[in-house]
Automatic annotation (TrEMBL):
Domain Cyclic nucleotide-binding, residue spans: 31-117
Keywords: Kinase, Transferase
Protein name per the record: cAMP-binding domain of CRP or a regulatory subunit of cAMP-dependent protein kinases
A molecular-function term among this protein's GO annotations: kinase activity
Source taxonomy: Bacteria, Pseudomonadati, Bacteroidota, Flavobacteriia, Flavobacteriales
InterPro entries associated with the record: cNMP-bd_dom, cNMP-bd_dom_sf, RmlC-like_jellyroll
CDD domains: CAP_ED
A Pfam family that the UniProt record links to this protein: cNMP_binding
Amino acid sequence: MINNLLKENITKNAPFSKTELEEFCKYFYFKNIKKTEFLLEQGEICKFEGFVLEGCFRIFTIDKKGNENTLYFAAKDWWLMDIDSFMNQSTSNLNIQALTDSKILLINRADKLSLYESIPAVEKLFRVMSQKALVAWQRRLIRNNSQTAKERYVYFINNYPNIASKINDKQIASYLGISHEFLSKIKRRN
């Protein structure tokens, strides 16, 4: 049985009839992910789009020097994937790792693409979600270019308390684009 959280998320983003919603949800499969387990690793091809039911994930890259750079976190009621790898079926530059024991629903690429044809509301759903994601990325870029590290930290803690409570300072610093030591200084001054 598909979790009601997924159905609520879908219907708040696009209009689905009850029949369409039931049909669409049949294509998702459930997966338990243990803390520190990878859902996707750099070099693999992303063959899924995921919806988080419980837990928290970190989506990040590792550069040539071994530094981790966090793009975003995905907690309960968030979607996750590597869109470039998923859409182009190219090797991923991203890692998706569970930060806590997590539960996730996944849909594979072939099913998602065929559902675009059979249920037009699916295409609208993912278009709306893509637009919202693009707005969020744009706002984050603006914050990164116009706010101090302290302001970005305060914004993150205030706007994502459920994620901030599940991650460590090193991961927060990676997301903010600052060193762990600099984050410690910011926290001491607060």
